């Protein structure tokens, strides 16, 4: 459902009038990230259900890359949603210009994307394929356990 709704949303947001506003740029980023995330989520579900025996051989793609991109798109959607909310408050309460320079929005968006990529490095490193605890011959992606000497909660 989200995929079907995001396609017309992206088409609408790409109109010149909307794209020329700073809110439009945030909403385009939000919709594209949401669409990519939903497609990858569908792909991950299909692979887990129907191609599970190949999961151990392709754990780099399935457990690390796709999980990292899913986490990245989720966090990007949350943060751009927060930026949209903040900008709406600024417009409503402080008469902030809706048509101000998009240069700042593009710079903020690029910095946000770089920050989300940096934050997700641990996601990429930590995920691995493991045997399902109760279903034989099934593999799952799980986060790698920290060695005891790195576990700060045990100290």
Automatic annotation (TrEMBL):
Coiled coil, from the record: none
GO CC terms of this entry: membrane
Domain of life: Eukaryota
Gene3D superfamilies in the cross-refs: Rhodopsin 7-helix transmembrane proteins
TM region positions: 23-45, 65-84, 104-127
Residues of the G-protein coupled receptors family 1 profile domain: 5-155
PROSITE patterns reported for this sequence: G_PROTEIN_RECEP_F1_2
Compartment(s): Membrane
Keywords: Membrane, Transmembrane, Transmembrane helix
Protein name, UniProt field: G-protein coupled receptors family 1 profile domain-containing protein
Organism per entry: Rotaria sordida
């Amino acid at each position: 459902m989200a995929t079907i709704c995001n396609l017309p949303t992206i088409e609408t947001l790409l109109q010149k009038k909307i794209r020329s506003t700073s809110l439009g740029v945030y909403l385009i980023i939000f919709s594209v990230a949401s669409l990519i995330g939903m497609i990858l989520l569908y792909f991950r579900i299909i692979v887990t259900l129907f191609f599970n025996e190949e999961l151990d051989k392709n754990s780099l793609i399935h457990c690390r890359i796709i999980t990292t991109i899913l986490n990245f798109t989720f966090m990007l959607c949350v943060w751009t949603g927060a930026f949209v909310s903040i900008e709406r408050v600024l417009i409503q309460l402080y008469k902030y210009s809706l048509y101000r320079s998009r240069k700042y929005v593009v710079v903020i968006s690029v910095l946000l994307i770089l920050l989300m990529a940096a934050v997700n490095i641990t996601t990429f490193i930590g995920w691995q394929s493991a045997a399902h605890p109760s279903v034989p011959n099934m593999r799952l992606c799980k986060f790698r356990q920290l060695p005891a000497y790195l576990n700060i909660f045990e100290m």
